[in-house]
Amino acid sequence: xxxxxxxxVMGPSGAGKDSVLAWVREHGAAHGVLCAHRYITxxxxxxxxxxxxxxxxxFQSREQRGLFALTWQAHGLHYGIGNEVAHWLARGAxxxxxxxxxxxDLACERFQSLRPVLITAxxxxxxxRLAARGRETEPExxxRLARADAYPVPPGSVVIHNDGCxxxxxxxxxxxxxxxx
Length: 181
Fold this sequence. Notes:
Blueprint: E1 6-10, H1 17-27, E2 33-35, E3 38-40, E4 52-53, H2 56-64, E5 68-74, E6 77-82, H3 84-90, E7 94-98, H4 104-110, E8 115-120, H5 123-133, H6 138-149, E9 158-161, H7 166-179
Parallel strand pairs: 1-7, 1-8, 2-7, 3-4, 8-9
Antiparallel strand pairs: 3-6, 5-6
C-alpha cells in the first residue's frame, strides 16, 4: 500500500474553502479522500466549518503533549491539525486539511507528500460572501479583499475557482486528486 498525499487547502477569506471542503467531506470518502477536522479555540456553533471546539486550556494541554501535527494562531484563535492525519496518510488515504498561509512553510517541512491547494473566487464573489456572513464591517471587507488580491499561489498548487456552483468546485478538486493517482 502506498502512502497517501496531504492536500493543504488555503485561500482568501470568503473564497468558500469551508463550503468546498464540506462538499468533498460528503462526496470524497468513496474516492479514498478524507477531510481532517481542525481543532480550534472557537465554539462549535460559531458558524463556518465543522471543527472540534476546544477551550484554550485544552488546546494548550494537547499541544504540550504533542498531539498536534501542526498548530498556528490567527484572528485571536488557536488552530491545530491532529496527529491522526499522519496515521491516515500512512494507510494510503489522501487527506485534505484546511490550512493557513502562515503555517504553510512548516506544513511543507512536516509533510513531504504535501500538495498545496488554492481555493479562490472573484473579488465580487468574495465581497458578497463576506457581506452575507455578517462578521466583518465594510472597511474590514475592503481589507480582506486587498489581501485576497495579494494572495500568492504556491508553486505546484491545484487551483480551484469557486465562483459558480459549489458542486462544480468540489468535483474539480476531487478530479484533481484522482488525476494524481
